[in-house]
Design brief:
The protein has a single domain, classed as Cupredoxins -  blue copper proteins (Immunoglobulin-like), CATH 2.60.40.420. It has a 5-stranded mixed beta sheet with strand order 1-8-5-2-3, with no helix packed on it. The chain has a 3-stranded mixed beta sheet with strand order 4-10-9, with no helix packed on it. A hairpin with a 4-residue loop joins strand 6 and strand 7. The protein has strands spanning 6-11, 30-36, 39-41, 44-48, 53-59, 64-68, 73-77, 83-89, 93-98, 111-117. The radius of gyration is 14 Å and the shape is globular. The protein is mostly beta strands. Helices cover 0% and strands 48% of the residues. InterPro entries: CcO_II-like_C, Cupredoxin, EfeO_Cupredoxin. GO terms for molecular function: copper ion binding; cytochrome-c oxidase activity. It comes from Silvibacterium dinghuense. This is Cytochrome oxidase subunit II copper A binding domain-containing protein. Residues 24-121 form the Cytochrome oxidase subunit II copper A binding domain.
């Protein structure tokens, strides 16, 4: 059985949404994540289950991509335009991501973790 840990909407730079995703609230708080050889900065973020947030990904050097399978995120990251994902995590847990576009010798060392905590009362 497939368990979905988040509702995800991938946005283009123009703000349009990709097919198959429900357009989520786009005025959500934003977290900016930079991709560079050989790290994501920040390398970890903490989100709250049930709260919508916009993740903005920017490449500081060569093209990258990020995949966080447990949150159904898989987007290319270029310098311009930025890549944006609007996400509402529905389950608590630690979700590991990685760069999925080869960017050099230490490409396999690039890691990213999304910590999702239970919704506060």
């Amino acid at each position: 059985m497939l368990v979905t840990a988040a509702t995800v909407c991938v946005l283009s730079s123009s703000g349009s949404h990709s097919a198959g995703h429900v357009l989520a609230e786009t005025s959500a708080p934003a977290i900016v994540i930079h991709a560079k050889r050989y790290a994501f900065v920040p390398s970890q973020i903490t989100l709250q289950a049930g709260r919508t947030v916009r993740l903005t990904f920017i490449s500081d050097d060569v093209p990258h991509s990020i995949a966080i399978p447990g949150l159904q995120i898989d987007v290319p990251i270029a310098g311009n335009p930025v890549s944006e994902v609007v996400i509402t995590p529905s389950a608590a847990g630690d979700f590991t991501g990685m760069c999925t576009r080869y960017c050099g010798a230490d490409h396999d060392k690039i890691a990213f973790v999304v910590h999702v905590i239970e919704q506060r009362q």
